[in-house]
What does this fold into?
Amino acid sequence: MPRAPPNRASRKRNTAASTSDSEFSDASPPPPTPQSSPRKRAPAKKPPKKPTKSTKSKATATANPEPLSSASLLQNSKETTEQWYKSKRTKSGYANYVKNGKQWLEEWTAEGRLEGGVSVQAFEEMTEETPVALRALTAFKCEHLGRGFATAEGIRSAFKDYFERVCVCIVERSGVLRGRNGRFTTHCFRRGGAQYRFLWADRKWSLKAVGTLMRYLLDELMAYEEGFSDIMLDDRRLDRHETFMGENASAPVTHSDLTRFQEQIIGSMRTMIVSVAASTPTGGESIFAAPAPPPFPSAPFFSGQSAEPQPHPAPPPKPRPGRIPTTRSLDDALRFWEAGSPQNGLDTPLKDWDSLFSPAEYAAEAVKLGNIRSVCNEFRVEYGGDYDRFEAAFPGLRGPRRSQEET
It folds into this structure.
């Protein structure tokens, strides 16, 4: 740019400066002022850099060019695979190096240097040639070009990219996401398809399968405990197989237990009365003599006004449905349906439950009741109570024969 012309003030200063310079031109030169800058030292020469491995390999490759082949590259890749993945110099800058390797693949396939029929599309289409081309490219970059083992990051990224592409191909051809909003990720494959099996499959897996391991670990405990869905029932009877290690000290008392206890008390009282009457002397006065009249006359006594009301006996408690014991055979089902099982807490036969109780009272036992009803109806109606025909149709359902005393 052209500079602006100086103004008058600047011209005067320049004129004064030139006059002073002409005055000192004839005299001796002025002494150096303290503001003059010192001389600059020459910079020290740096030692020459040591040749690195990459420069050595490049110089060696330039000085002694050796013909490369796919066999030599694959052999080098086998020898250095562990070093690639153990390297601490891995960088993310090589994540997309496969894209630049397409040009290398085109050149090598055009020259026919890749053996085994590797095509130009090995990096575009998923075929059996893709891993071979990746290994050859990696060995070429690490061993021939001397880029170090940081290329391992490129291997990981490349194979991850190809695995995701394979996943997409599988999902599209299988039709899993047909009619669904979502996408399949490699995480689902790594977890064994858990998301699909538990959430999206037509026949979903039950979450009870998660407790399989716990059932194996607690096998000994499960041998004694089962079926606590009706734990809140008041008359629930605990059997040996429902308590830990067979301890039955906290079993609740049933109505039949109270009845037997009452009969024992009444029988003991009768025996005591008979023994006391037998020990009474015959000549003396009876200990049950009539009471003496009161010493003072009392007012007329009206029983209707002052007689204390006699306590009425409390009505027996309403029967309640008990717990259905474990049914192991046809004989157990018939016995529970017709007569019940008081020794196991089933005082009311199952055939009377519909008429005596409401469905809400035996909701916890509704499944067992329905199964036993179906078995009994099948046995009596369809097979006319014939054990042989029923055994032929359902072998093993009747179970072991029991004696009359056990039944």
Q: What stands out?
A: The chain has a mean pLDDT of 65. The two ends are 123 Å apart (CA to CA).
